[in-house]
Amino acid sequence: MNAPQRVRVQHLQAAKDRGERLVMLTAYDAVTARIFDEAGVDLLLVGDSIGNTMHGYTSTLPVTLDEMVVAGRAVAGAAHRAFVVVDLPFGTYEAGPEQALATGVRVLKETGAAAVKLEGGRRVAAQIRALTDAGIPVVAHLGYTPQSENLLGGPRVQGRGDDGADRLREDAVAVVDAGAVAVVLEMVPSPVAASVTSMLRVPTIGIGAGAGCDGQVLVWVDMAGMTDWTPRFAKRYGELGSALGAAARAFADDVRAGAFPDAEHEFGA
Ligand code: KIV
User: Which of 77, 144, 172, 231 is the most buried (most CB within 10 A)?
Assistant: First the structure.
């Protein structure tokens, strides 16, 4: 994206209008947020994938609002340019617009983030409307929605077949009509994602949804090669997991050999 000082909601729309692709990565702490921000990543997502990636949970479902607030504050505090979006975790918005509004207000007040993201289509349109009316930008999340993994039967492509594609398009229209400023499309057939993208006035950001989206998001540990296993739709742009292991082994070898600390790394009398 053409680099403004700080990415704001109007720049997302302008990027789509100009045909410039948006770049989004997850971040869960200040260290990575600063690195990604300085690398020119346009949007930082404090995803509830923090549960699987950082906290060792087996799904996003146990992630709490307190956990999201702590991570959101760290990321928003470290990012000077990127548009920071915080996920509303499972159980903090589904009950209705009032619950969603209370959660969204807390997230923006306590983190300094610019927007929130929530999962679902028509079923959460009223929540998106309430948040938007209160001045809180909302990114919607359609296709495979991990918070519904028990209902969806695990990570499975969504929007297949004429009915599936029609449902996805109807959900996309509903969330945008309710005020969503962007739509994440996860694990959606590429032609369906491309047709949703051309239909919507707001940008789509794909993950496992093909190149026809207005932008792409990856979970940073997948992108950087921090884990043994990478989802089929993610590309490893580094091998940070092995690099980190090698650094830890070198440190251990030095300590055991009495080679660290050396004169350069100690204080004299
Ligand atoms: O929580 C997350 O990381 C997400 C991305 C997969 C889009 O929602």
Answer: 172
